[in-house]
Amino acid sequence: MQHEALAIVDEGAADLPRGALSEIRVGCDAPYENYRLGAAYDEMFARDGSVRPHCAALHARLASLPTEELIRRQQNCEQSFLHQGITFTVYNDSRATERIIPTDLLPRIVTAQEWVRVEAGLKQRIRALNLFLQDIYGEGRVLKDGVLPRAMIYGSKHYRREMRGLHVPHGAYVNVCGTDLVRREDGAFVVLEDNLRVPSGVSYMLANREVVRRAFPGVFRAAGVQSIEHYPQALLATLKSLLPFQEEVSIALLTPGVFNSAYFEHAFLARQMGVELVEGRDLVVNDNIVYTRTTSGLKRIDVVYRRVDDDFVDPLTFREDSTLGVPGIFNAYRAGNVVIANALGTGVADDKAIYAYVPRLIRYYLAEEPLIENVETFLCREPESLSYVLANLDKLVVKAVGESGGYGMLVGPHASKAEREAFAEKLKADPENYIAQPTIQLSTAPAFVEGAIEARHVDLRPFILHGETTTIVPGGLTRVALRRGSLVVNSSQGGGSKDTWVLSA
Amino acid sequence: MLSRVADSLYWMSRYIERAEHTSRLIAVKLEAMVEQSREDSEASWSRVIAGLSAEKHALDPGDSFATTQTLAFDHVNPSSLVTSLRLARDNARQVREQLSTEVWEHLNRLYLRLQPVTIDAIWVHQPARLFREALQDLQTLEGVTHSTLRHGEGWYFLELGRYIERAQLISRLLDIHFGVVAPGFALPPPPPKYLDWPVLLKFCTAFEPYCKEHTAAIKPERIAEFLLFDAEFPHSVKFAVDRVREALVHVAPGAPPARRAACERLAGRLKAAVDFGRIDELIGGSIDAFLVEITRQCEQIHEAVYRAYIAYGAETVL
Hints:
The complex is a heterodimer. The radius of gyration of chain A is 23 Å and the shape is globular. Chain A has 15 helices and 25 strands. Chain A is α+β, with helices and mostly antiparallel strands. The N terminus of chain A is likely disordered. In chain A, the strands form eight sheets. A five-stranded mixed β-sheet of chain A has the order 15-7-6-22-23. In chain A, strands 9-8-13-14 form a four-stranded parallel β-sheet, covered by helices on one side. A four-stranded antiparallel β-sheet of chain A has the order 16-19-17-18, sandwiched between helices. Chain A folds into three domains: 233 residues, no CATH class; 112 residues, Rossmann fold (3-Layer(aba) Sandwich); 63 residues, Dna Ligase, domain 1 (2-Layer Sandwich), CATH 3.30.1490.270. In chain A, β10 and β11 form a beta hairpin. Chain B has two domains: 148 residues, no CATH class; 156 residues, no CATH class. Chains A and B meet through α3, α10, β9 and β11 of A and α1, α4 and α5 of B.
């Protein structure tokens, strides 16, 4: 899975001796005897150790099943993933072995009321982000009004000058968005990161649902879980809506190919939508028209849902060493002969510095207050923030805006005094390059790990579809840090995923 | 249909056919070995090795263990059972969205089951059993393919791959048994003995169908005729050639007539050769040349299909 590492990492909790946190054991009955509540919000248990009402049925069912039965159901889930080929390949001694993406048996449950708020907030956010993209690739009002500095846009490596003045249907630059939400200690969902380029994971959302529904049919049915199965239809409708006046729209899903870690997802979505799955070498551009090469000759393509990064889409316009792309497709796009979804250059709106401005962008474009907050973020380019950050370096995580994957980052609570002082110098020298955030404890949810039910940290990535209208299937991908105490949920570091149940009442 | 997809379906199907053929030859050989003398067993292994085009591995036909290991489980050998299955599955993965879930999962399960198997694990108790089971799985896969995919263009590319491969594999086996000098041998094995003929029939799942047609009286000439020219037996050369021709009528329905013509002409020519061939003209005379010609024409059809539908230059059709 191409998931970015979580922005905020506080592995400190894992290092502390057990009991250093105000741990609460929630009853001693099997299978919960190892369940510990920490500082984080817990999805199943309230602070006093009582079961949250919406989880009561699941809680009771789990208690009624012998451990061997849970193990058997977990194995069934894993077998199903293996047979479906939801795997990645590990190479050792010339033999390739297949590993499944870890999936956790226990669903994470979100109430209807919570979901209503989340959905409204996500719709608001995607609207504002699309208006922002239309603006910066158009007249640039937001820059003229001084809402954010020009250098932040024109200096961004994800800004695509080639997109200036290009007509995008419905102003929908971001057609598929995966927004990472986390729960704060107070239980409120906040946005950690917007993924506006080629977010992945939706096939795991659907695959998890299928196996977990089979594992707990009774609880599932009684709970009244909202369906997510229509995601492929909703995606197809979104892509079709990009050519509103055309009866027959021929759509292709562009994949980097079978070696890409998200290939399963590409093939899955193409099959579920009934559209052609193509690689760059299957497409030909002639006279600014995009065709696929078929056994019967060339066939025109109207919409390309691309799962290839900006840089690799067209070697004539972007990276010339790209072999994944389609030479000439960008010119066809500019000529209006093909729609590319997501539009190019959307990455300018999801970097760490712009993230801090999103609440202001919502107010600026929509004249509304943000319905979902950001994680509190200090922009070091602003003098008051900088002095606050310098005074509180031991409590904050400081990140360089242009970097990812943990480079150029200071985790205040874990750094030595000397490291903090050295970092303070860097900060003062180039404040514009840094943001700071408090460390947060992601919420915990029950996970079935090595034969026991234990608390593990989770986040939530809902998928937002935006064309002529905005659609969000209720739920998303809950990623879970399967290592005890870890707050890192991405799959390369022992992260897995679990089904997410949004209740209908 | 995308040319790349057609390419993958075609090869997926060829590799599945090859895997099935390999499993069957090894299973039948291991079962027959119990009643064979040492010399007969070696001669029979030599034919299996040649039938699977594995002469270049310099296998010792006296060493059943090592031979089975190389033919079945050698991940480096490009035509071993496990390699054929891996390549079939790699191609299927490329076109996962074109296959039904049933076809994909059946193939994937078989692949996952056979990948870790080692010769040591199966050799002690009934080594043939694993190959029989693989064979059953592959036959089930054929049924699942038949019943869960639309019989559209993609399915006909699967048919094309399967039957081109089959025509070549059966021709080769016949050549090894009936040819004057079996190909590819430094030291050719002795001519087949009486008990080698039922084994040949079993290599082609033809023993029972043959007996129904000709009674259990084993006559090499009748066997050759049955495996070459029987119109109704799925593992005869004629049956395979007819399916190839039928598949070519159905693939690439929108291609311009000029591009279709090249493929259809070659398929028609091959069909004519098989339709009007007579066994009494071949036995004791030109059967080698006839079988070589069938193999060559299959290759020509393969090339023509690629030129017309898969690897054509985009500029030639704009």
